[in-house]
Amino acid sequence: MKKITLLALAALCCSCYARLAPEPALRPSEYVSTLVGSQSDYSLSTGNTYPAVALPWGMNFWTPQTGTMGDGWTYTYGAHTICGFKQTHQPSPWINDYGQFSLMPVRGRDKVGETSRRSWFSHQSEEARPYYYKVYLADHDVVAEIAPTDRAAAMRFTFPESEESGIVIDAFDRGSHVEVMPDGRTVVGYTTRNSGGVPDNFRNYFVVRFDKPFGAFRVFNGKKELKGSEAKGDHALAAVYFATRRGEQVTARVASSFISPEQALRNLESEVGDADFETVKAKAQERWDEVLGRIEVSGGTEEQYRTFYSCLYRSTLFPRKFYEIDAEGSPIHYSPYNGQVALWLLVFLHGILGYVPLPFPASEPRLSGRKRQDAGGPCEHLPRKRLPARMGFAGPPRLHGGQQFGFGRLGCHPQGHHAPRRHRHPLRSDAFGPHESTPRGQLHGPARS
Q1: Structure pTM?
Q2: Are 389 and 396 in contact (CB under 8 A)?
Q3: How confident is the model at residue 196 (pLDDT cuts 50, 70, 90)?
Q4: Rounded to whole angstroms, how far apart are CA atoms 349 and 344?
Q5: 256 to each of 59, 69, 101, 327, 448, how far by Cα in Å?
Q6: Quick count: other Cβ atoms within 10 Å of Cβ 308?
């Protein structure tokens, strides 16, 4: 009788544990909240993050923008208004951003400037996933959605019935350009916005292509409206307008390049092409599930799963790909060291306080696992370059009372099989460890990112 009682108690305990610690029921990407850590400001950090809509290690991220132009805290959870959906490359608010521009859906031809186009939003209408962002913009009665690729994105805007539905393309200040193309569907331009330390020819070229021809457009340099279809100056903006029915959706396909306008168009056509929004979204989720699913977890609560996968998502945003694929299918990159375009892949590590010395190739089996003809045996350590100061690449200068360090990796990592044979280097993942895990310098200041 005593044995039966003990068995019954054991079965009951196992049953309770199973209810407390179920197997994950959702896809890994569905446990992630990209809003974790975003309730931060200059005086106090809970993470100094923003809700990055991106692919793992992607060249470009996208984020809703609640802060003003140039503010390192581009999105703060306590804010109540959004003024744009920004392409960003920011690793930390202390380092700030580079190559940024934004799109913002509006209702009304007078809603162009950063202040006038702002719209109230609620977190109750906000869905923030790594592969998808959605929010309702109350002042414009518009639903905005984003789905990313490595160097491009699809944006879908659901408009009300209006003759003045529009989208503002803001190339930001400190030198920019926009041009409305004759096809009536495309806007191109560039931004030079950065945080210092860049070559003189630094530009982020972008192309925005709509699936609906616009009926009217306007171009601006700052607050001054210009004649014609082109604006070039300190702060270029373009606004395009559509007549829409209630519930009508307009899709914008957006891509950029640090190399040239032609390469920006190539990135758009190769990564998005004519794919609809749902296709881009589905592919992005599959990619995140593939990466996040490489670590299998069990025995936790749903809250623990959400915490784990939200942290794992954040750890796979960096290091960032800083290369593009040319017409011949070869990897090329714009060099932030000399401003020239060069062969090979370039990947940047970042220098946030929680700097994890995880090499990009080791964390990306699709690249690190490729067969190399000269593989085997000990290998040299990767060449290390100190990154340009304040370019958002985590250079060594003191920033806001603290120091942040980061290093770039060029050419001879396992992707080096793309390079000429004489430059190939076999690598082992343990080649990175002790050299990049040693802390360098101190971090000071009121917040910890």
Answers
A1: 0.79
A2: yes
A3: confident
A4: 16
A5: 10, 19, 10, 15, 31
A6: 18
